[in-house]
Specification:
The protein is mostly helical and 121 residues long. It has two domains: 1-81, Orthogonal Bundle (Helix Hairpins); 84-121, no CATH class. It has six helices and no strands. Helix 1 (4-17) crosses helix 4 and helix 2 (26-42) packs antiparallel against helix 4 (57-81). The radius of gyration is 18 Å and the shape is globular.
Length: 121
């Protein structure tokens, strides 16, 4: 599997070859990402939990392409802002480990503030 750096380089090249960098502002990319997430959600709307776990092959392929669109816009957004998404994800996991101690929240999906803990977002 390619690295995110390889994927990012290909996406930058793709945008530059088409002179689309001018359209790839953080505002535009975040709005495009929100639209793609909405398209992803449409595939699961009205499904049961069980149905969402057992997609037909054609539906799973459609979902995969929407996931790809989301990832592409997210990587472009991070690149344009100079954010390392892997480092940011590891920082966020560390924050969540503090916000949601396993011994306190195991099997319970409430928000951090509902446990009487400080919710730092």
């Amino acid at each position: 599997m390619d690295s995110l750096d390889d994927l990012n380089a290909r996406l930058v090249r793709f945008a530059q070859e088409r002179d689309w960098e001018q359209f790839h502002s953080p505002k535009n990319l975040s709005m495009a990402l929100a639209g793609e997430v909405g398209e992803l959600l449409e595939h699961f709307q009205w499904l049961t939990e069980e149905q969402s776990l057992d997609l037909a092959p054609d539906k799973k392929e459609q979902v995969a392409l929407e996931v790809a669109d989301c990832l592409i816009y997210l990587i472009r957004l991070a690149e344009r802002l100079g954010i390392d998404p892997i480092a940011a994800a590891y920082r966020k996991i560390a924050i969540n480990e503090q916000r949601y101690p396993a011994e306190l929240v195991r099997g319970d999906a409430r928000r951090a503030g509902e446990y009487g803990l400080k919710d730092e977002g």
